[in-house]
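It is worth pausing here to work through a concrete case rather than discussing structure prediction in the abstract. The textbook approach is simple: state the sequence, then state the predicted structure, then interpret. We follow exactly that order.
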Amino acid sequence: MNRPSPALVAPNAARTLPRIPLLLLCAAYVLPGVFHRDPWRSADLASFGQMVAMAEGRTSWWTPTLGGVPTDAALLPNWLGAGFIVASSPLVDATVAARLPFAALLALTLALVWYATFHLARTESAQPAPSAFGDDPPPVPYARAIADGAVLALIATLGLLQLGHETTPELAQLFAVALLLYGLASAPYRHWKSRAAILAAPALMAASGAPTMALAMGLGGALVCAGSAYPEVRRTARWVVGATVLAIAVAFALDAWRWRAQAPDAPELFSIARQWLWFLWPAWLLAAWTLWRWRRHLLRRHLSVPLVAASVALAANLATAGSDRALMLGLPGFAMLAAFALPTLRRSAAAAIDWFSICFFSAAAIGVWVMYAAMTTGVPAKPAANVAKLAPGFEAAFSPIEFAIAAAATLAWLWLVRWRTGRHREALWKSMVLPAGGVALCWLLVMTLWLPLLDYARSARPWVDRVLLHVPAGSCVLAPGLARANVAALEHFGRHRVDARPDATARSACRSLLLVVRGRQAPPAPEGWTLAAQVRRPTERNETTAVYRRTP
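Step two, the predicted structure:
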């Protein structure tokens, strides 16, 4: 039985966001951080180090290692980054070359979310309720407006901000999820494009290190297709099952199965709930409203397709005791669900979103500018003193190009606020403009005005420079059990040959030994070694690197 749609849309509300402003907003979100920065600590640096090691021939492309230690790195994303490094060398720096394909994956993810939402919004069950006066909005402009809202909702989501700008396998997994959603959504309209996307997406997900999620999303997608009212979509269910089987075969061929499940305890459940609140903000709020307002339509395609990605990601997050990288794979689904809340929002709710966005992001932008002024001029004195305390040795330098870009972005934000607070703005996507614009503004300001400070604090280069004072450049370094990110930093920035095997012994030919310990006190020197120095990262308080030299 057909149930009435909860969406009530005036004809003038089904207007599309002009393409040039939308593309500029996407560029302001995707491009900052791609250039002129080092890989940051932990996963970003470890993944980059793996790619450079493969590109420079220091490890096998099929069985990669770092410091002689085998890694469980996903092969396809590492091949992608290493391939770009090889192809662009020596014209492009390795850090930029490795980051370019992942920036392209983020841009393609935004595009796929737009097209997937557009096709879902075209379905009959997603259309607004008929008007009593017969002035219903045309289906295609209405679908475009909903799709614009989905892209804005994805940009506004806080969880994508940092993880979406790293060179890690999860970004390739995110692209594969968006590709699968596009394939499922476009099945009634783009037969062969849909099937090609469906065949490729689960295999890409498995080759990128997420075979279990590929299996779960494939099975969920097959159930959605099997229950569809469209005959063409029901026939697509066989393609989804075949794609899932192909993903399983790819995972076995690449040895991609890894058991990472870990049941959370009660305190972790509370922490996970808090993580959901901020990581999925503001998409979760609108998605919950969508599920409530469209609760009589949950089996319809425009809700069931994004629910597949969202529910699998939430389950994976719980099964891995709160992994934010698993939760990130549900962001396309949450953004698409959030878009269908827009035609059902009350005016008071839309106004609350607008004023919260204006206050929050304006205050954040002012804070970035104040801290920048303190770093470069010393005024205000208290923030400048805090920077000197937290990042000792850092010296800020004025860059006219970065200053001009940040100033232009701030002026654009002021114009956007003025436009949004004006009258007669009926477009469906209007409530997502300020959240998305505010996130893009803050990210751009941080990646221009604060980039030197963040690079100093989060890059491993200053640590390697201090180690180099006590270890000959290009020499062999014995570092048993050293973290993958530190191994990557020593190999790339210091050009050292690192032996990080846990069972490395004193019979190694290396003349230097590194041990990273918690606290300030170095452990007693191992037999046959003499303590040469203790070094710490400029911004590190609880971790010390003890440098030993072999006793003659």
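Step three, interpretation. The first helix runs from residue 19 to 30. The two ends are 87 Å apart (CA to CA).
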